[in-house]
Amino acid sequence: APEQAARMKKLLEQEKRQKVEFRKRMEQEVSQFIQATGEPRRRFQPMNKIERSILHDVAEVAGLTSFSFGDDEDSRYVMVFKKEFAPSDEELDAYRRGEEWDPARAEERRRLRELAAQEEEAELERGPAPPGPPNDYKDKYRHLIGSDAAKAAARTMEANKAYGCVPVANKRDTRSIEEAMNEIRAKKRLRQAEDE
């Protein structure tokens, strides 16, 4: 157990030394990158999670912007950008997809998006489409019903003038409403008098 503890302590110290050396190396590379005038961004080799976190920390201390890209843990790498050349969202999306950033293609995409937005705006200004089906169902059945069948039928049809009206001569009860009500009241009074 003491030997194992000593070995572990030695490994931890060695790992700590490696991290300190890696940090110094990254600080040097980042300072070289800052001093290089024609380089807006720098891509570092793929590294493990701890090394990437060290590099992100170094970049943040130096006032740079840094992002990690890549799918697998083994192939993930860090890109460091100078603040004045900070990447756009489109550029970051291209790097996340594993593509190289092409400003001309990005400009073309932006222009197409603007055209689509203008078309959508014009569509909204025209207002909603009128409700109803996009075509007339009568067109589908024109060969069966003809072009003016419904209009002709409506013209020839005549309303029955007596519909809903019953002549007084045909009514059985010719009393008025008041007369009928008075008769009903009289019958009620008669029944009540008989019950008493």
Automatic annotation (TrEMBL):
Keyword Ligase: no
CDD domains linked to this entry: R3H_sperm-antigen
InterPro entries: R3H_dom, R3H_dom_sf, R3H_sperm-antigen, SPAG7
Residue span of region Disordered: 100-140
Record keyword Transmembrane helix present: no
Coiled coil (UniProt feature): 5-32
Limits of the R3H domain: 20-83
GO molecular function: nucleic acid binding
Compositionally biased tracts (Basic and acidic residues): 100-116
PROSITE patterns referenced in this protein's UniProt entry, alphabetically: R3H
Protein name in UniProt: SPAG7 protein
Organism: Myiagra hebetior
